[in-house]
Amino acid sequence: MKTLPTLALAAAVLAPFVSHAHGDESHPPKPHAYDPSQVEEHAFGREGDPRKVSRVIQVDMSDAFRFTPSDLRVRTGETVKFVVSNSGKQLHEMVLGTAEALKQHADLMRKFPTMEHADANMAHVQPGARGEIVWQFTQPGDYQFACLIPGHFEAGMVGRLVVK
Q: Is 149 inside any structural domain?
């Protein structure tokens, strides 16, 4: 009986992240439109205004289950556009977050591999394609980015993000 309350809690915690499939769909995800009235503050910042980007960071994802670069540094208050390329032959994603939130989300993805979600802190990228994340880092700290597709996180597809 402990399983049901645990799943309910996990679903409530991750509900803001739910709305886009991880499957191998052939159509690209709909472009995300920035709406300042919908921006939510997270421990690691908030969706950034694309008109206020101060820096662009290129990140590659590969079928070796690695990000290049895997260690990123940004300044508090900076709005960054991540241009995320997938040089592999399978779907990958980049999700920004705290280590604990990413671990919980990865655990939930293993239990529900077809769970749908899309949020401003993530980009799902088909093989050979590119995606973007625009994020404003409002809080200093040590955060992460990861691919939460089942098996990818466990294989070490995690990077470090330091905000100073």
A: yes
Alpha-carbon separation of residue 13 from 7, 18, 87, 123 (angstroms): 10, 10, 32, 20
Q: Which residue shows structure tokens 């508090």?
A: 76
| Residue 163 bridge partners (DSSP) | 74, 141
Is residue 38 in a domain? no
φ and ψ of 36, to 5 deg: -60, -25
DSSP string, 46-94: EEPPGGG--EEEEEEEETTTEEES-EEEE-TT-EEEEEEEE-SSS-EEE
Query: Tens of pLDDT along the chain (164 residues)?
Result: 454 444 444 444 444 443 344 444 444 445 568 888 889 999 999 999 999 999 999 999 999 999 999 999 999 999 999 999 999 999 999 999 999 999 999 998 888 877 777 789 999 999 999 999 999 999 999 999 999 999 999 999 999 999 99
Count the domains in the chain.
Answer: 1
Paired tokens of 115: 């769970």
Per the CB < 8 A criterion, the answer to whether 164 and 76 are in contact is yes
